[in-house]
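Per your request, structure below.
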């Protein structure tokens, strides 16, 4: 996080200043008394960090230079500058010689915790211990004081887990040539106490057996104080179900027997008064009101809040004119909360209209308020929202300069239907008559006014002025100016015009004197410098500094990145980049089951299940260049795949991410099985507007086997077929979420040219375009469509052709079975042209399950043997219904697709179960 360092240890600096004066002035004073005074010269400046010679970074911020006349002021300023970097905990300055002076700066790094390692302590969750540490965390500054505090925190955490006699030994290991420290905690847990007896005191009401049954701490088990809190919550729930919603339970004492290592404790129970809630006159769930009365509250507020919740609930159900009266009745042991409800008649909202307003038309208001046209058979606005609209309309008008707008709502009843009419009294509009700027000299008023949203003759809205101030402050930061203060003065006159004056107290333009990088023990400095968007000597452009942080984060090798601007002198500062490198090794293992073929019903057990495994090893930041080497294998009875990948952020010095992949795979398909091995080189260029460009060079050698179509349908059988190709891809992703998309679009275009070089038989050209768009209609309704077009020419082998069919393309055919078939076997042979359209309307099913939704879809498309065979009349049609359940990895889908063009005798309805989007 970007921040400015303004404070430092002034006591240390003053001590060093005094120390320097005493060391240096006494020799000069004695020389002047002897009458042989001459200005001493600096013969050498030495900088040592933790006793080792330092590089250029720190030497660059020391003002004292070799060959200069000795200056006490420069030494003092150098000390200040070094302290301001925040990298050092202590500084010593040594002097040698009289007339030819040698200055030595001894700097001692401020150390940071690299790793926290727990030794021994079997049975203790290391993640729980790590989470209990607050004083000392990985990446935080290290000190002996923090280490002692961390030990106390661990002792408390162990005590809560029942380790009352744990012994913790601490040690540390400093990493050479760095400021990093590894901290070790050796834990000897010691013996634990066994629960001898549990007593319940107070107005318990229930048997001990029933209460203890709900607890984790029980007699004869190990005593864990942390579980007492969980037990108390469970016991409160029991009393809550009995109506005692304000029951109090607390631990009243622990009696430890160190000789026998046993403990006894008591729990005090005070149920307080029973609370009963009654709702009379309407069917309203009690769960709506129980949270209100679970704690001690102001009863008047509780009654009012309950009334409001009941009315809102009934309005959503169509009871627009319901009313509620509430009261409280008390007995010796009971509080009764009574709500008497008069729901009135139920109405269906037929239409809404607006009258009295001139600034907005009715259609504009509906658009601004996100009131869409209704869909047949579906409600378009609920009654509660209807009563919220007056406030929303008033706020909308205020944002356009109408501070006095008032809105009333009236109803016209037509049987069980109702029309709502909103009467709008706009009032006068306040406008900005003039915008002026005072105090600006670095930039012209015209330039500054271009940065804000307010404009002359435009509407005046007070909150927008603060946003304008923030925009101006951001503008000054982006121009390298620091310390700017901006206020706004507003003057009104009788004509509803506002004169807006921005008063600017400008800071100063600041240049970056030095860029100091610390924390990179493995990563090369050259690798980091490539990501910097700002250089030494540049002005401190805020956006450039922020973009530098983003680029360093995208490398994926640092677990923490901090950018700090350290002021040095007027117009100068240092940029300190503090890094913490993440783990370099990653190992992943996965085991699962897969079906022999794509599941078409919920009866997955009727499909043959086979094991599937994945193993992955990644070594990151190789040679300190942010490169990555990975080995990935996927093994099942249906497919086998192994990939070795080398990824790096630059391609021959160009800022293009590149990836070199070598792979071997075996896979079963509908019409054939194949073995393939190959190598590919891919370069990736991303832009800030979500555009990605990819270029791939590929060579692959494929051998077909278990061929189930005639040899005439393919180019070769059993003989290897080699492909050497170059492809380019354009991707423009504007979706709000790639896994669970609600709005946005996605466009991709891939062109591949396979040419017969390197003894390859390939000679074809393929193009594939996909476009998706997601429209939110209203509430949780959404319309999505996808268009896919694939065109190929030349000698395309069967394994490189277009295929479609299945849950992710055309839901009227099984996997890969859309399009041309082998006349003898009936197996798909693919094609050189593909046209596919998918339309889907998503809608909510249950308001209580927001992640559950329904969908109706329509798929249209086909595969054609050649481009010349494309015939729109031969496109097949599928209509269907689906259920979706949202997960972080995409929706779990169940789809029923009805093929409207299925041949006679073939199954027309297919069911699909899939994880992920159809698109």
């Amino acid at each position: 996080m970007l921040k400015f360092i303004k404070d430092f240890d002034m006591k240390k600096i003053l001590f060093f200043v005094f120390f320097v004066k005493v060391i240096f002035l006494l020799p000069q004073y004695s020389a002047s008394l002897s009458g042989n005074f001459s200005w001493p010269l600096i013969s050498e400046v030495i900088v040592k960090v933790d006793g080792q010679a330092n590089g250029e970074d720190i030497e660059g911020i020391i003002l004292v230079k070799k060959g200069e006349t000795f200056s006490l002021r420069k030494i003092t300023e150098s000390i200040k500058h070094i302290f301001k970097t925040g990298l050092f905990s202590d500084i010593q300055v040594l002097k040698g010689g009289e007339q030819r002076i040698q200055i030595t700066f001894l700097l001692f790094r401020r150390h940071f915790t690299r790793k926290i390692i727990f030794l021994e302590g079997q049975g203790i969750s290391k993640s729980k211990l790590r989470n209990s540490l607050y004083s000392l965390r990985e990446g935080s500054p290290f000190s002996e004081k923090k280490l002692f505090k961390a030990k106390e925190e661990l002792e408390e955490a162990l005590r809560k887990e029942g380790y009352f006699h744990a012994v913790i030994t601490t040690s540390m290991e400093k990493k050479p040539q760095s400021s990093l420290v590894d901290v070790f905690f050796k834990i000897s847990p010691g013996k634990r106490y066994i629960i001898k007896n549990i007593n319940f005191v107070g107005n318990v009401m229930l048997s001990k057996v029933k209460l203890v049954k709900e607890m984790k701490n029980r007699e004869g088990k190990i005593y864990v104080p942390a579980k007492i809190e969980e037990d108390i919550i469970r016991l409160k729930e029991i009393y809550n179900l009995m109506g005692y919603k304000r029951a109090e339970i607390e631990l009243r004492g622990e009696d430890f027997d160190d000789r026998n290592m046993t403990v006894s404790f008591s729990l005090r129970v005070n149920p307080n008064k029973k609370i009963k809630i009654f709702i009379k006159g309407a069917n309203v769930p009690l769960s709506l009101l129980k949270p209100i009365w679970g704690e001690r509250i102001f009863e008047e507020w509780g009654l009012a809040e309950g009334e409001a919740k009941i009315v809102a609930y009934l309005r959503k159900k169509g009871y627009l004119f319901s009313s509620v009266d509430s009261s409280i009745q008390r007995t010796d042991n009971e509080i009764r909360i009574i709500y008497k409800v008069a729901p009135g008649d139920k109405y269906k909202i037929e239409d809404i209209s607006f009258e009295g307003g001139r600034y907005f038309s009715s259609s504009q208001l509906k658009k601004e308020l996100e009131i869409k046209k209704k869909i047949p058979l579906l409600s378009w606005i609920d009654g509660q929202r209807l009563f919220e609209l007056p406030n929303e309309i008033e706020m909308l008008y205020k944002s356009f300069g109408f501070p006095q707008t008032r809105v009333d709502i009236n109803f016209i009843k037509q049987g069980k239907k109702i029309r709502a009419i909103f009467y709008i009294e706009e009032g006068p509009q306040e406008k900005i008559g003039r915008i002026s700027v005072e105090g600006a000299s670095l930039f012209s008023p015209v330039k500054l006014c271009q940065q804000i949203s307010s404009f002359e003759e435009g509407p005046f809205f007070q909150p927008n002025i603060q946003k304008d101030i923030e925009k101006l402050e951001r503008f000054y930061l982006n121009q390298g100016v620091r310390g700017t203060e901006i206020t706004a003065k507003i003057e009104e006159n009788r004509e509803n015009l506002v004169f807006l004056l921005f008063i600017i107290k400008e800071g100063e333009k600041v240049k970056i004197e030095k860029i100091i990088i610390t924390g990179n023990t493995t990563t090369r400095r050259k690798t980091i410098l490539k990501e910097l968007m700002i250089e030494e000597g540049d002005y401190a452009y805020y956006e450039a500094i922020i973009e530098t942080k983003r680029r360093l984060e995208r490398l994926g090798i640092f677990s923490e990145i901090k950018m700090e601007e350290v002021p040095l002198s007027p117009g100068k500062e240092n940029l300190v980049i503090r890094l913490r490198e993440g783990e370099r090794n990653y190992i992943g293992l996965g085991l699962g089951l897969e079906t022999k073929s794509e599941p078409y019903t919920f009866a997955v057990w009727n499909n043959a299940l086979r094991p599937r495994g994945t193993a992955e090893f990644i070594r990151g930041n190789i040679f300190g260049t942010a490169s990555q080497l990975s080995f990935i294998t996927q093994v099942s009875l249906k497919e086998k795949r192994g990939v070795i990948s080398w990824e790096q952020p630059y391609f021959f010095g160009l800022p293009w991410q590149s990836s070199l992949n070598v792979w071997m795979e075996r896979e079963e398909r509908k019409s054939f099985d194949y073995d393939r091995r190959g190598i590919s080189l891919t370069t990736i260029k991303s832009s800030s507007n979500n555009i990605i460009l990819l270029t791939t060079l590929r060579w692959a050698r494929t051998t077909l086997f278990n061929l189930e179509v005639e040899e005439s349908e393919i180019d070769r059988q059993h003989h290897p077929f080699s492909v050497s190709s170059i492809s380019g891809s354009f991707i423009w992703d504007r979706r709000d979420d790639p896994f669970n998309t609600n709005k946005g679009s996605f466009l991709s275009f891939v062109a591949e040219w396979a040419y017969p070089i390197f003894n390859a038989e390939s000679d074809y050209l393929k193009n594939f375009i996909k476009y998706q768009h997601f429209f939110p209609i209203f509430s949780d309704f959404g319309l999505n469509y996808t268009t896919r077009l694939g065109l190929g020419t030349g000698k395309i082998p069967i394994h490189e052709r277009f295929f479609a069919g299945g849950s992710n393309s055309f839901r009227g055919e099984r996997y890969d079975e859309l399009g041309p078939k082998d006349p003898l076997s009936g197996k798909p042979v693919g094609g050189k042209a593909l046209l596919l359209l998918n339309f889907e309307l998503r809608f909510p099913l249950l308001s209580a399950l927001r992640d559950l939704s329904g969908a109706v879809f329509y798929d249209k498309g086909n595969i054609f043997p050649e481009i010349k065979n494309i015939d729109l009349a031969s496109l097949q049609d599928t209509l269907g219904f689906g259920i979706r359940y949202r997960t972080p990895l995409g929706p779990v889908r169940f789809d029923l697709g009805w093929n409207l063009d299925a041949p006679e005798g073939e199954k027309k309805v297919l069911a699909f179960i899939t994880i992920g989007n159809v698109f």
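The first strand starts at residue 3 and ends at 4.

Regards,
D.
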